[in-house]
Amino acid sequence: MKIVAKFGGSSLAGAEVFKKVKAIVQENKPVVVVPSAPGKSHSKGHKITDLLYMCHQLASHNLNFDEVFIHIETRYKTIVEDLALKISIDQVLTEVKTSIAGGGSRDYCASRGEYINGLILAEYLGYNFVDSKDIIRIKNGHWDMEETKKLVDEKLANQLPAVVPGFYGSDSEGDIVTFSRGGSDITGSIVSNCLDADLYENWTDVSGFLVADPGIVKNPKPIHRVSYRELRELSYMGAMVLHEEAIFPVRLKQIPIHIRNTNHPEDEGTYIVPELGEKDKNLVTGIAGKKDFMTFTVEKTFLSEELGFFRRLASVFETNHISIAHIPSGMDNVSVIVAESAVAGKEKKIKEEISIYCEPDSIQTSYHMALIAVVGRKMISTKGVSAKIFTALARQGINVRMIIQGASELNIVIGVENEDFEEAIRSIYNAFYKEDKA
Ligand code: ASP
Questions:
Q1: In the structure, which protein residues have their CB atom closer than 6 angstroms to any atom of ligand 1?
Q2: Whose C-alpha lies nearest to ligand 1, atom 5?
Q3: Counting runs of H as helices and runs of E as strands, what totals does the chain give?
Q4: What is the pLDDT of residues 248-294, one digit of tens each?
Q5: Which of 9, 73, 261, 305 has the most CB atoms around its CB within 10 Å?
Q6: In 3-state terms, what secondary structure has residue 55?
Q7: How far is Cα 298 from Cα 295, in angstroms, rounded to an integer?
Q8: Largest CA distance in the chain
Q9: Are 413 and 371 in contact (CB under 8 A)?
Q10: For ligand 1, atom 6: residue with the closest CA
Q11: Backbone conformation region of residue 326, classed left if phi is above 0, alpha if psi is from -120 to 50, else beta
Q12: Best substitution site from 177, 184, 191, 240 to test ligand 1's pocket, by max atoms within 8 Å of Cβ?
């Protein structure tokens, strides 16, 4: 079985966890290991990536960054020392420091966290080191699929097993470019795609996804299997263990992702798979949500018969750089649901523009709505599920402001008052699972 394994920052924060990583690698024998930069080594500590951004910030204002850089040096040197490795990283640290002082780009500076960690990990595991700058091609902030595949075939496929640092690649000029934060997940997914891996293991500090936020529901049940599409519905609402963009490359090749806990490799974790078998389909796979949405409700007689009405309405939000979360509609009215933070101060302007472009009978706004997505592959086709959800909410005296059911038939999105958010999630959870009250 061809495995690509990515280890997150918390799995590589110090020598102790490096040892756990080595044991896992010896057992599972991944062909490629993708490391993040070291994360926080204790709760008050810092992530190396944050320190590197800080160094770059100081250097770009011509301020001395020695004090911050020392923390970076010490973290890496301690790891090398504690693992009794023979490599010297002095020279690479000096090179990095000189480049930061010499005006290295923000992306270059940030990428060095993964780069140095990759060098150390390759030495420790006895793997080859292949620099991501030589194989991951990034165009306009996104993965250039064809070019990357070509480079992987030329420069990685004959170097296996290898360590490939996460988070960055290069543009067509050869300059280093990073993905957005948490982007090592994307690197692992891209490498899995290009090498046609059988499995993408993503090792982190939790044992996979949970049915609901443990900050709201006490000891929620783990999700052992979830389909890519269910996960998209859940991650869109906020429950992130994995970078959102990491799903796309593996999905193209139908490669499953296995989220696992470096500290508890015996735990089952979560498999993210192309499609669930009948027996794995859940009524409710997950419940996730977000607060602070607002609605613009536009009324106009015969609006659904008016050609171009929805386009004109949507264009007002587009030109104001506001992405639309949902557009539930009735015969003569439509509500546009957007994040409050995106509107901030633009309400009056948006209303005026809607008036001009759409000539409605009225426009009303309301604030403080939370959206809750209840996601499950079998949910919509099973009788009584919605009844169960809404009975649970009614029993708690929770008023439902809005119900949106995606045509994909795998989720129901429910709008409630912000203040009812947590209670609503607990009620829905308890209707399908039993909350641990102990
Ligand atoms: N080190 C980067 C970050 O902290 C990327 C990653 O860890 O995936 O965002």
A1: 9, 36-37, 47, 49, 113, 166-167, 181-184
A2: 182
A3: 14, 17
A4: 999 999 999 999 999 999 999 999 999 887 777 778 899 999 999 99
A5: 9
A6: helix
A7: 9
A8: 77
A9: yes
A10: 182
A11: beta
A12: 184
